[in-house]
Amino acid sequence: MGKKFGKLEPYLYLTPALIYFTIFSFYPFIKTVLSSFFVLDANGVVKGFAGLDNYVKVLTDPLFIQSIFNTLLYVVLASPVAIIIALILALVANQKTRTSSIYETIFSLTMAMSMSVTAMIFKIMYNPNIGIINKLLQTKINWLNDSKYAMLSLSAISVWMNIGFNFLFLLAAIRGVPNELLESCLIDGATGFQRVRRVILPLISPTVFFLICNSLAKNVIMSGLPIILTQGGPKGSTTTMIYYMYKNAFNNMNYNYAYASAIITFLLTLVLMLISFSFEKKGVHYS
Amino acid sequence: MKRFLSVLTALAMLTVSMAGCGGSTASSSSSEAAGSSSAAVVDSGKRLSDTDVAIDFWHHMEGTSAVALENTVNNFNETVGKEYGIVVTPSFQGTNTAEKLKTLAQAEDWGNFPDVCQVASAGIPVIAGYDLLVKPEDMYAAGENIIVPREDILDNAARTFTYMDELCALPFSNSAILLYYNKDLFQQAGIETPPATIAEMVDAINKLTVKNGDEVETYGLEVQVKRYQLLNFLGGMGEYNFLGDNEGGRTGLMTKTTIGEDGSLMKFLDEWEKVIATGGYKAVEDNINEEFAMGMTAMAIMSSARIAKVDELTGGALNYGTAALPTVSADDKGGVAVGGSGVVIFNKGDELRQTAAWIFQQYLAGEDAQYTFCTGSGYIPINRKLYESERMQTFLAENEPMQAAATSMQNSNPNVQEPFDMVTGEIDTIIDTEMQNFAQGQDKQTTHDNIVNQINSKLAEYVEVNS
Amino acid sequence: MTAKTKKKLLSFLFQLLAIAVGLLLIFPILYAISLSFMKAPEILTRDIKLLPDSIQWENYRKALQITTLGRYMINSVILAGVSSFIRVILASLSAFAFAFFEFKGKNFLFMLCMSTMMIPGDVVLVTNYKTVASLGLTDTYLGMMAVFLLSVLNIFMMRQYYLTFSKEIYEASRIDGCSNLRFYSRILLPLSKPVIATVYISSFVSIWNTYLWPMLVTNDDKLRTVQVGITMLNSADGSTIYGPIMAAAVMVLVPTVFVFVIFQKQIVGGMLSGSVKG
Fold first, then answer.
1. Any chain B CB within 8 A of the CB of C231?
2. Is residue B8 included in any domain, yes or no?
3. C-alpha distances out from residue A13 to B162, B366, C98, C187, Å
4. What's the mean pLDDT when you consider all of chain C?
5. For chain C, which residues make up each domain, given as ranges?
6. Residue ranges of the domains in chain A?
7. Three-state DSSP class for residue B337
8. Which of A4, A55, B280, B325 has its Cα between 20 and 30 A from that of B216?
9. pTM of this prediction?
10. Same structural domain, B103 and B154
């Protein structure tokens, strides 16, 4: 094999992926970016040049500003909790026992549920009068229709759905940690936590890093739960940035607002992602 | 790795072969049907062509309504379809067919448009802009192949699908807003007839509400006042109320709402304030059907499309009735708007298919189809002749909740309609939020001004880029 | 009590606790199963009611009567099964490049790929539909799969895994005259079973649960997927009839659980020994 091929080789392996992303992600997205600088009518037809007008309008819409805070709140509520619970479960499941394959499956099962079915189940569980949650807690909280609780309730659903996914990846990672190290750290209960921190966490840090990036991206562009359960209300308290976009694009056929808000969301995610990656060198140990 | 690759190849081949079969299923099944039926039927003289004409019908019916729709289509294929040599294949396209059409239209993929499509009335102005749309207005004017005369369709149901003075769709699955009331609870409270006005409703709420200390055990009324509910309350005021300029967006783009300047909104809020003051009014719908079915609320205001659902929930055990939506003042006689969906047809460049689609479109609004579909699903018939028939009268006599719905629809003024307000989603959010605030103590004037101003500013935004 | 029985007892209690926690976690699923056996009036009660009065299959019968769920399941298995398989291949190739090679623009290309994760699906929907329609792929399985054939998440995950892979083995195999592609197929992939299994499971599940795209690119009822099938069980006005929907949801869960059980063995069985780790 020539030296030239050696240089080209990695690009060769990347070609299928890059072609695919170009067709189904970059091309449509760049089209959207360009469109966001124009005035579009309800059929998506260009009516004139807008410059930054669309962005100015979106950024001065109080509901959009509210949606930025809602989105950040949702990320803060949903992302870390789902990872921490999953980590604890993965540590529990790593201990091989006669029945471990049973609870391994159970722990990961929450990811198997589709968003729509999960939303339906939680909707009836959240019902203030006939729902099981209020009955068990002896409370009278209106989980989805009270602006104080609505976002919390949605993030609880998201945590629940993501536990399975996070667990699965963390389990695979912990299973990769040499056994001797783990056993010694679990038996020695007194310093167990410290050993988890010093031995296991560094070794599984690549996976944890992956899960953090994944949940950041997923949660910032979340729209499914408000679409199904709350329609962004009550009083805009569950309007996330992408729900805002969705509503403008699909309900109001206002692509001017929709595209501008989508791109602002993209930029926000990008910033969060770049911040995460700046920690990669420091916090993630690959060997 | 070899095994890996062989599995991959096998899977890839499977995909390709299944893809092939997937792509051809539609045509093969319809041609099969065509073959069998054309052989079986003697030429009735009406046949459109020697071979059967196959057309697609997109719909968004779910659950029991989907079953009723399948039955209706099967009836067509076996009767009128056989006479004319038409075979209709229905397919479910998600909860909102208009959204799928919109995506196809924006992608300029006209080839994948169906011959016949069920669409919600709010989608009419957009669909009226598609070149492919074949308007019943023109088909009736041409006067060919008419199997259901225009006069048979209720005027108000026809007007629901009329845009710029042209009939764009024929009504099919329609409903009206209703007051549901629990007869047992009414009896316990000593109320004989359901309230006809909001003022009477206030009295009823006071009698029906059961409190246990500070906690309400049974609410007198549950309804979350959003766009649908508010516009129905306002639309029936006086003779009728267009709610917006250009006849509520029917003769041109609606550029502003008139509910502020004509005082109708304020009049409603005056009355509604008394409802809120009762303390027995539940302003948030959590699971309204379920709560009404359980007897947690004595009255509920919702679409007639939910009659079937309430029956299903209780296994028919709940003793309840329905009545016309209470009016804002005693002398209002406009009635309520026709809700639900109609059916449109598209010209796909094949005259035979277009004719077939036209015949099927009419069939769906005709007596037989409306009877089969409505009795099976809980929608309200829109065919005038059907109401005169004995079978419908028997059915209504046996299904009391449906009777009130049918009466309410038949008695309403055709000018009472939900407006074509284009930014429907926004308006829904605005009204919902403000009415929630109102229920929680926001003052009347603020509520009024917020609703009017915010709606107008959203409308203005739409008009700015779309006129 | 000897130390051994004590240890056994502790382990027993530990397992019991783990399973109890697990059952608590999947309470919503268990509740859904319970609802699927309840008659409508049983669901509507002011008291706490966790179990149905009796096991009755009416809801299942109804769900199967209204939809052709069996057919939809086959469609979904093909859609999710094949797409996930292609995902694993494409993702592992790209991850191989990102993890084992140094080349110009590597970081840029990686971030470029990562950026696809931040693009909301709704934004690219219409253009992607246009692309797929212009390729004549509407109403085909290939069209349904088109947007699911690769996810940067999978590339990212596999890259993370490969980066922990010992560089010494790679160097050694290179010195032995093993080509890169050979190393990839003979050494790297077989040793990546746990990550392949997790990527496969996670992408299978996420594709299995998609609704909008498969419905958009197909018009024929015969090509519907399970999630569309579940929606068909809603009643008019978007209100929910719980029994049949829960029955359908439970039936739809079975194949995914099946995939879980099969592939989870790989995660367990494919443990890396300490020597592979650097």
1. yes
2. no
3. 58, 62, 9, 17
4. 87
5. 18-56, 57-269
6. 45-283
7. coil
8. B325
9. 0.89
10. yes
- Average pLDDT estimate for A200-208: 87
The answer on B364 and B217 residing in a single domain is no
Q: Identity (one letter) of the amino acid at C113? A: C
Provide CATH code, domain C57-269.
1.10.3720.10
Question: How many distinct structural domains can be found in chain B?
Answer: 2
Residue of B211, B286, B430 to mutate for A, most A C-beta atoms under 10 A:
B286
* Model ipTM value: 0.89
Helices (H) and strands (E) in chain C, counts: 15, 0
Residues 6+ apart with CB under 8 A from A275: none
Terminal-to-terminal C-alpha distance of chain C: 43
A140 with B215: Cβ contact below 8 A: yes
- pLDDT mean over C243-262: 88
Task: Please indicate, yes or no, whether residues B260 and B307 belong to a single structural domain of this protein.
Answer: yes
Sequence-distant (6+) residues with CB within 8 A of A30 are: none
Burial class (CB in 10 A: 0-12, 13-18, 19+), B78: exposed
Test B61 with C236 for CB contact under 8 angstroms.
yes
Query: How far is the alpha carbon of A63 from chain C, nearest alpha carbon, in Å?
Result: 19
Question: Distance (Å, rounded) from C-alpha B25 to C-alpha B16?
Answer: 14
pLDDT digits (tens, 9 = 90+) for C10-52: 888 999 999 999 999 999 999 999 989 988 778 777 777 888 8
How many CB contacts within 8 angstroms connect chain A with chain C? 265
From residue C131, how far is each of B107, C144, C147 by CA, in Å? 9, 12, 10
Backbone angles phi, psi at C133, to 5 degrees: -65, -40
Distance of CA C73 to the CA centre of its chain: 15
B426 and B368: one domain? no
Q: Inspect the interface and report whether the beta carbons of B429 and A123 lie closer than 8 Å.
A: no
B191 and B216 share one domain = yes
The pLDDT assigned to C164 comes to 82
Higher pLDDT: B214 or B175? It is B175
DSSP annotation of B284 reads S
Domain at A45-283: CATH code: 1.10.3720.10
**pLDDT value for C237:** 54
- Within chain A, strands assigned E span 38-40, 46-49
CATH of the domain at B439: 3.40.190.10
Domain residue limits at B239? 177-336+415-466
CB contact under 8 A, A120 and C264: no
Paired tokens of A56: 């100015």
Residues B28-56 have pLDDT tens digits of 344 444 444 444 445 567 899 999 999 99
Give Cα separations from C274 to A287, B323, C189 (angstroms): 12, 76, 17
pLDDT tops 90 at residue B8: no
C202/A20 Cβ within 8 A: no
Length of chain B measured in residues: 467
8-state DSSP, B313: H
Q: Give the residue from B339, B406, B271, B359 showing the smallest Cα distance to B52.
A: B359
pLDDT in tens, A122-146: 988 898 877 889 988 988 898 998 9
Using a CB–CB cutoff of 8 Å, tell me whether C269 touches chain A.
no
DSSP string, C29-82: HHHHHHHHTS-HHHHS-SS---S-SS---HHHHHHHHHS-HHHHHHHHHHHHHH
Q: Are residues B315 and B190 in the same domain?
A: yes
Tell me whether C234 touches chain A (CB under 8 Å): no
- Helical ranges in A36-131 per DSSP H: 53-59, 62-94, 100-108, 115-126
Question: Which chain C residues have a beta carbon less than 8 Å from that of B104?
Answer: 129, 133
Q: What is the largest CA-CA distance in chain A?
A: 74
Cis check for the bond before A234: say yes or no (omega within 30 of 0). yes
Q: Give A196's DSSP letter.
A: I
Q: Are residues B143 and B290 in the same domain?
A: no
Distance in angstroms (rounded) separating the CA atoms of residues A19 and B119: 38
